[in-house]
Amino acid sequence: MIMFFKKKEYQTLNDDTNVFIESSICTGEKIIGFRDGRTGTLKQAVVVRTQTDIDDFYRMHKLKNTKNFKI
Which residue in 68, 64, 28 sits closest to 48, CA to CA? Predict the structure, then answer.
């Protein structure tokens, strides 16, 4: 039996379009990082506990928070 799967595609731009926040199903812990365009994994992920953590992530990478992520 042959199965066909659609390959996931991700944007690999240098602005905040490849910034994502993921949440753990088990613990609810949130992390923010850059989505790798080829593998789809998060790179340079940082744990997010407060809104300040999100703001610091953007400031550290000199990006503007155009997605307006909120906790």
Answer: 28
Cα separation, 20 vs 34, in Å, equals 6
Distance between CA 28 and CA 17 in Å, rounded? 23
Query: For residue 52, which phi and psi values (nearest 5 degrees)?
Result: -60, -35
The rounded distance, in Å, linking the Cα atoms of 12 and 37 is: 5
pLDDT of the chain, 71 residues: tens digit per residue: 454 544 444 333 455 568 888 888 888 889 889 888 788 888 888 899 999 999 998 888 888 887 777 77
